[in-house]
Amino acid sequence: MTKKRRSLIVFMVMALAGILLLAVPALAQDDAENKFAGDIPQGGGVAPQATGGPDAFGYTWMDQSTGSCDYQFVDISGSGALVVSGDDVSSGPISLGGNDISFYGNTYTDLVMASNGYISTDPTDTGPDLSNDCPLPATPSTGGGARIYSVHDDLVTNTGYYEWMDPCPRPADNWDHSGGNSPGCHVFMYDNATHFGGTATFDLEVILYGITNEIVVMVPDGIEETGSGSTTGIQNDGATDGLTYACNDGTTFPTGQDTAVCFFEPSAPTDVSLSGFVGGSTGSPLWTAVAIALLTVAALGIFVTLRSRQEA
């Protein structure tokens, strides 16, 4: 074996060792960060986390504490269409103005707003589901469809409004605003809701963006029970995939704090790099770098083998 070949072999071994030393701890950290997204123990509450995901489809979330999900409540009580009012009822299918919505890979032109604090893609959902599920995904006690849970609990909604707004007065978080206005948005506002049997009223809302399909849940300070018996999150049609921001945990909506939670679709068109995303898929920058390095080492190995055969 020549000195040059020995040097190449030593280089390959050192390069491979270096890749493994860098990749293994990082991959272990990715797994640890993502474990709570799919391995939440059944039966107990789930405390809120600033970032989370991805789920199997690729959705992730951030809340207002990250600086990448702004709290900016949009009051449409004076301009929106009254679509739902009462206890354990729903709006029926709401024909969406403006852009359609993509949710877990399916496109929807109609959504249902339920008085119990969730939005459903099931046009037959009449809104009786008053029992929150914890954690998600979970088969609903009644109804179906893909769902967005803002504050799913036994609520009484005094007035629930819907309005398409273009441009959206609350700019999308994952949009490059240097080129102009934010995409339009669908606003669903729960006005003067109460927990069943309670007296304290509160507002909450869900904003769904056209084009980027970002989902924003906003809950102002002052909600009774502070999340101790509710669920906030998303899940697909069939309840096989989803994300739980929090459920059955009294620290979900702390007194003295406005809460915003942003759920991001993995394929959303954007020029903005959102720092803080948690991910461990094979499409992450870490895995890409590892794959390129391993392919480089493999190519060197093939080169050395061919040269050895030629010189033999």
- Please state the CA-atom Rg, rounded to the nearest Å: 24 Å
> Structural class given helices, strands, pairing?
alpha+beta
The best one-word shape is: globular
* Cα separation of the termini: 10 Å
**What integer is the average pLDDT?**
83
Number of E-type strands:
16
**Assembly of the depicted chains:** single chain
Task: Walk me through the topology.
Elements: H1 3-38, E1 51-52, E2 60-63, E3 81-87, E4 90-95, E5 101-103, E6 106-108, E7 110-114, E8 118-120, E9 147-152, E10 155-165, E11 185-195, E12 202-209, E13 215-219, E14 231-235, E15 242-247, E16 259-264, H2 285-311
Antiparallel strand pairs: 1-2, 2-16, 3-10, 4-7, 5-6, 7-8, 8-9, 9-14, 10-11, 11-12, 12-13, 13-16, 14-15
Helix pairs in contact: 1-2
Task: Explain the overall architecture.
- There is one protein chain.
- This protein is α+β, with helices and mostly antiparallel strands.
- It has a domain at 48-264.
- The chain is built from two helices and 16 strands.
- It has helices spanning 3-38, 285-311, and strands at residues 51-52, 60-63, 81-87, 90-95, 101-103, 106-108, 110-114, 118-120, 147-152, 155-165, 185-195, 202-209, 215-219, 231-235, 242-247, 259-264.
Descriptive keywords:
eight-stranded antiparallel β-sheet, single chain, alpha+beta, 2 helices, six-stranded antiparallel β-sheet, 312 residues
